[in-house]
Write a structure and sequence with these properties.
9 helices; about 40% helix; two-stranded antiparallel ribbon; about 210 residues; alpha+beta; disordered N terminus; about 25% strand
Length: about 210
C-alpha cells in the first residue's frame, strides 16, 4: 500500500468534502462563513475594519492550506541515478514547518530534519523540502505529518532507510487551554536501516543537534 492510499480523505479532492456529495464550497460561501464567525465572536462584520476581513481570511487559507493541491508522488517521481555509487545518508536539516492543528486550527511552527539511505537513486533536495511543505500545509497532527513524510519517502524512493524528526511549538497549547509557553513537541520516525542500525540512528540524531 503506497503513501497516497494511506492518506486520509482530502478536502476538495475527488474523494473529498461532502457538504453535498463531491461539492467543495465556493469562495463566496467561505467568505460568508468567516462573516458568521466574526459575528459569533461578538463583533460587527459590517464595521469598516472588518469589511475586507472575509476576503483576507479566505486568501490566507488558500496559502496556509495549499498542501491539499500538492501531490507528494509527483514531487518524488523525478530521480537521478548517476550518483557515482553514492550509498550513504542524504539529509536535510532545519526545514521550516508551518502547519495548523486539526483540532483547533491553531498554528504549530517548527523545524523538520529528514534523511534517507538511497538505493541507487536520489531525488532533488528541494523535493524533500517541498514534500514536508505539502503535508504541513494541511490540517494536521504533528504525529500524522511525521508518519506521512516517512511513508512517502519510503514508498516512492525505495529507500533502504528513512529518518524524520519534527520539533514544533503548538499555539493551541500556548495561547489557549493550559497556556504553557516555550514547550516544544518532538516526533520521530525511523524506518529500515535507521530503525535496525542504532549507530546510524545515533548519527542522524547527532546531526540533528549539531550547531
Amino acid at each position: 500500500m503506497d503513501a497516497l492510499s494511506r492518506e486520509r480523505t482530502l478536502i476538495g479532492s475527488d474523494a473529498g468534502l461532502d457538504l453535498e456529495p463531491g461539492k467543495r464550497p465556493t469562495r463566496d460561501e467561505a467568505m460568508a462563513a468567516v462573516r458568521t464567525l466574526l459575528a459569533w465572536a461578538g463583533d460587527n462584520p459590517d464595521r469598516e475594519g472588518l469589511l475586507d476581513t472575509p476576503q483576507r481570511v479566505v486568501d490566507a487559507y488558500g496559502e496556509w492550506f495549499a498542501g491539499y493541491e500538492g501531490d507528494p508522488a509527483k514531487e518524488l517521481s523525478r530521480t537521478f541515478e548517476d550518483v557515482q555509487g553514492y550509498d550513504d545518508m542524504v539529509m536535510l536539516r532545519g526545514i521550516d514547518v508551518q502547519s495548523h492543528c486539526e483540532h483547533h486550527m491553531a498554528p504549530f511552527l517548527g523545524k523538520a530534519w529528514v534523511a534517507y539511505m538511497p538505493t541507487g537513486k536520489v531525488v532533488g533536495l528541494s523535493k524533500l523540502a517541498r514534500l514536508v511543505e505539502i503535508y504541513a500545509k494541511r490540517l494536521q497532527t504533528q504525529e500524522t505529518m511525521t508518519m506521512q513524510v516517512a511513508d512517502a519517502i519510503e514508498d516512492h524512493l525505495s529507500a533502504a532507510g528513512v529518518a524524520v524528526l519534527i520539533d514544533a511549538e503548538h499555539q493551541c497549547m500556548s495561547t489557549r487551554g493550559v497556556h504553557h509557553h516555550d514547550v516544544s513537541t518532538i516526533t520521530t520516525q525511523f524506518r529500515g536501516v535507521f530503525r535496525t542500525d542504532k549507530v546510524l540512528q545515533q548519527r542522524f540524531m547527532d546531526l540533528v543537534t549539531r550547531k
